[in-house]
Every structure is written in C-alpha cells, then in structure tokens.
Amino acid sequence: MSALAADLAQAARIVARVAGGASLADEFDPRPAIIDLTHGTLRRYGRVQAIVRELSHRARSDTLVEALLWCALYALESQRYADYAVVDQAVRACAAIERWSAKSYVNALMRAFLRSRASLEGRIQANVEARHQHPLWWIELLERAYPEQWSAILATGNTHPPMCLRVNRRRCSSHEYRDKLQARGIAARALGEETLLLEAPVPMERLPGFAEGEVSVQDAGAQRAAQCIDLRAGQRVLDACAAPGGKAGHMLEKADVELTALEADAARCARLTANLARLGLRARIKHADCTRIDDWWDAQPFERILADVPCTASGIVRRHPDIKWLRRASDVEQFADRQALILDALWRVLRPGGKLLYATCSVFPQENDVVIDAFLSRAPLARRVALPDGSAAQGLPNAERDGFYYALIEKHT
Question: Which of 35, 232, 302, 315 is the most exposed place for a label (fewest CB within 10 A)?
C-alpha cells in the first residue's frame, strides 16, 4: 500500500472517532502528513460533509467510509496531490480500513466530485455551515456580537495558525535569539520585546536552545497575560488554572515573584511541572481545584491572581478544529457558570489593593464582558482598571495571533 493510501486510512480512523465525540488531542498522531489530513479535514468539516451529502445516493454510509471521503476531499482541495492519485489512493485505502465493498462507492463519489465541481459549488455556498465551515449556532453568536467582523473571524478560524515564540530573556535577548534562528535558516520577525513570529511553522526540535529553556512556543495573544497582570518583584502571585504552564513560565521570566500554580487535572499538572523545569523556573505547584479553597490555600492572600479560566476556546479554534464541531450552544452558558464560580472563589484570596486578571481564549461575549459585568455588579469592592498594554480587552484572531480576552480587576480597600 502506498504512503498516501495508508495516511488517508489513518486520518479517516481519527476523524471518524472525532465525529463520534472524541477529542482530536486524545487521538493525536504526530506525523506531519496525518496532522495535515486530520486538522485540514476538520477545518473544512462542514464543507466536506455537505459535498458528500450532495453527491451520495446512499441514505447513510458508515462513519468510517464517510470519514475517508471527507479526508480524500480535503486532500483533493489542498492541491498537494494530483487528482487522479487521490482518487486511486482513496479507493486503495478502503482495504486498509476493512471496507472492501465500499471501493466502487468511494471511486464513484470522488469522480462525481471532479466532474461536477463547478456546478456543485453554488449549492455548497448556499449552505451556511458549509460556506463558513462552522456550526450554525456558532455563526449566529458571532454575527450578533460582531456585525462588521463576524465573517472575517470565521474565515480566520479556518486557516492554519501562526507559530509564535516567547524568548526567555533570563537566558538571551530577543535579538540574540533571532540571530540563532537566522543561522538555522528560520525566518522570524519581532512582534514585541520577547515575541517572535515565524514566517512558517517548524518542528520544535528545530528551535535552537528549546531544550535548554531559551524559548517557548506561545501565541502572541497568550503572551498578553504576563504583560497585563502588572507584576512587581516580591509579589505573592497565584496562577489558578496553570497548565500547561506557558503563562506561569512567562510571569516567572518577567519578574521575581513567589508563584503558586494550581491545576485540577493530574496529567496536566505533570506537564506544568515539566515545562517549568525545562525553563529552569520554580513555583509552588499544587494539584488542586481552585474553587475548593480549603484544599490548597494557606490563608495568606495574594497580590496578583491570574484566572485563565476554562472556556469554549472559540478564539483558538484553528489550532483545535474539532472544538467547533464538538461544542454545543448550551456549553457557552455552562462555561459562563463555571467562570463565575471561579471568580467568586478567587476573589476571597485576593489581598485588598491587589489585582486579578481574568483571561479566556474565547471570542464569545457571554464568556467575557457578560461574565465580568455580572461579577462587578455583585462584588462591591471590585473595580475594572485599564490593561497595562493599552490594548482592547477582546483581541480577535488574525494572521499574527489568536483571540484572547483580558479584564484586570482591582480590589479596593
């Protein structure tokens, strides 16, 4: 069996499991060809589903065969392979997924797509989910929230994400590290004092000094957290939802603070520990739910708290293309309830005069301004203050960064 047939078969297995409700992260296959096929297919999931529905004469094929067709259609439209090769290898992949009887069906549908591609396009564009490649409820939420920008947000969510680096200035300067990249033929430009945007993504093992902690891979939008929390040396700081440790590491790189990092998931807690160790940084790491204060708090208040709360991840969907199809409209309200619970709990451990930075990787106002406004209305000592970096609270995804939201809240005395 050729490499493309084997890759299509493996990608189809993964996509079929995701279609059944599994997380792409749990099914992750690190081979570049599989990443391209699975992530690319799921970014176009609404479109490839619509194409199969338009062309299929079957009431319903089995999910694994449909997943193979979705992946093959993505491969065709990616223009990485010759059309005839994709059709041939998709048919051959039927044997690898043990669906021998589906060969003629797969062959016929793929050839029908190639014959009718132009006329089919009009029908596909009439389907809102297929055109924007997002669920209808997601599209409608964004259209209401961003009347002028919603289509651009959706389009960005269907692109490949940028690769951004955070230089550990305790180890080297951004300028020095950029020279190291250039020596390895990796082009980058500066977005800030410690932020470099690569011209094209590269495997982490190609990054000079990565194992030695000179650099971390972290989106520019995520790097705003350490820039906006207003750190000072000697402060007692809490990172309440810390894994995998990017924001915790950035705070420790920027200032000599006494950091406590909490994580409720044991596996993610181990990853947090490993990431800080790579950077040569130390924190008090605790496997704990931040809302269960009695389980972890020593009764000494914090001067700064980062509440990087669980959310729909709607601002980073191009990195996790399965999310938009696994989420449900009801999840937004459920996340908002959890976010409110976290805010109320953490407010109790913040010192008067201290500041709490609320952060999400969401672009849905229901998880952002709505949650913060409700909190301010029930916490009389809470005052929202300007973000130190001077940027808007809601950052929308673009070619340089993902969509993150930040609100800085001060506790008056």
Answer: 232
